[in-house]
Amino acid sequence: MSEMKVLIEGSGRHCHVTRETLDILFGKGFELDQKKALSQPGQFASSCKVTVVGPKGETKMSILGPCRPHDQVELSLTDARPLGIDAPIRQSGDLKGTPGCKLVGPCGEVEMKEGVIIALRHIHVSDEDGEKWGIKDGDIVMIKCGDDGPRPLVFDNVVARVGPTHATAVHIDYDELNAAALLGKDPMGEVIKK
Amino acid sequence: MSEMKVLIEGSGRHCHVTRETLDILFGKGFELDQKKALSQPGQFASSCKVTVVGPKGETKMSILGPCRPHDQVELSLTDARPLGIDAPIRQSGDLKGTPGCKLVGPCGEVEMKEGVIIALRHIHVSDEDGEKWGIKDGDIVMIKCGDDGPRPLVFDNVVARVGPTHATAVHIDYDELNAAALLGKDPMGEVIKK
Prior knowledge:
By secondary structure, chain A is mostly beta strands. The longest helix of chain A has 8 residues.
């Protein structure tokens, strides 16, 4: 079997918003600009920023597009602490019972009742790589990385999302990126099946 | 062999100072108070804080005692970025060629020529545990942790410091603590020999 090498991408704090939330924050019919395409097909970073307000503090973050069915704020544990938000580590979209926050845009505010999470690390896998590597949607794998630096480690409990809309890449946050000292451009890791 | 269970401690940003630096920052003959004893015998956190100034920003941090032969600032990668300090990941005391910074206290300032590091993760091992586990000073081990949470992982390249003045504990920074979601009190890990 070929070595299962994979790109590792660090996600900074960001939020996803519904069409309705975007209308309130930026004005009716406002469209997000595509500042930068992301690795997952169709996903992009916009240049639009919102202020996320928690009980203890606030911070600005970018909105990723396109709009989604639910508002969702993704932070690192480091980000969450000064905001005073006790966010759980969850898969994207698994928002039941998570804390909320206030979003403030240039045209209005939205009080999110829930939707603030620390993203659970995961690996997007294309159908092609999933077949080649024998990995199915929902499988749990490990990712070995950082071997050329001072902080090599093996991330366990990495959930695989396999499907035709996925481009193969591991997504972790900056706490995790720093813990492995993945400081260079386009760091790579190795998938280890369990 | 008994399972090699070990306490994991997260170190926040802090600094160590020389007797001379303490005189300049806080006044001749000033003594650090012992706010909290640390796990390593004789080491303590004081309530004294200094402002660490980098090219892009500044932050306050506690001084740990007792005084040492060299000034040393220990940060996480997350801490270092807003200060504009490109600190390398190093073992404590291995300061050659590291960047400096300015320390500001109530009575004066000290320009450190070098000494700002991101601490390399390490494990302190008592002589007794070292003998029991077959681990010698300088050995490299792995630490498996976070198994009861959403972010289990295995830290590799954990340097062992074995000796009579050491109490057995793993030291990591907050980026690493967050990456493993070690959020409870007194998290434990398992030593894996290589």
